[in-house]
Amino acid sequence: MAPNKKGPQIPKASIPLRDLGLTYEEALHGIQTAVKYAMEADPNYHGSEPKHLRVGIDSQKAEMLGLVMLLMSKGIITNDEYIEAMRLAANQELAVREDEYGNIIHFR
With the C-alpha atoms ordered 92, 93, 94, 98, is the resulting torsion angle positive or negative? Predict the structure, then answer.
């Protein structure tokens, strides 16, 4: 998008994040539980090999750190905004995992 006189226009997310009211840590615990449940329910669960999991986690950490440092250095986001966005994103991820089981199982 072209910047306007007030600064760059940032497009809104096409899918609103669902806030389950959980802290970041609570939502991550729920995600961890959901992944473990899926792995135990299906031994062939996609990407559940230890090396695959570790590489995925490490690459995501590196990508996120680079992006956040860039955005903060340019004054686009603050640390508090980042922390709240991460909390909401973790709540969304847990909601998606619960949706996979028809909201019958809650991992909270």
Answer: positive
The pTM score is: 0.68
What integer pLDDT is reported at residue 20 of this predicted model? 93
Domain boundaries, the chain: 47-102
Cα(41)–Cα(45) distance, integer angstroms: 8
- The three-state secondary structure class of 21 is coil
DSSP 86: H
**34 contacts 92 by C-beta, under 8 angstroms:** no
User: pLDDT for 47-92, tens place per residue?
Assistant: 667 767 777 777 888 888 999 999 999 999 999 999 999 999 999 9
Distances (CA, A) of 45 to 1, 36, 57, 68, 76: 39, 10, 17, 31, 38
Cβ 36 vs Cβ 105: under 8 Å: no
pLDDT at residue 94 greater than cutoff 90? yes
Task: Report the SS3 class of residue 7.
Answer: strand
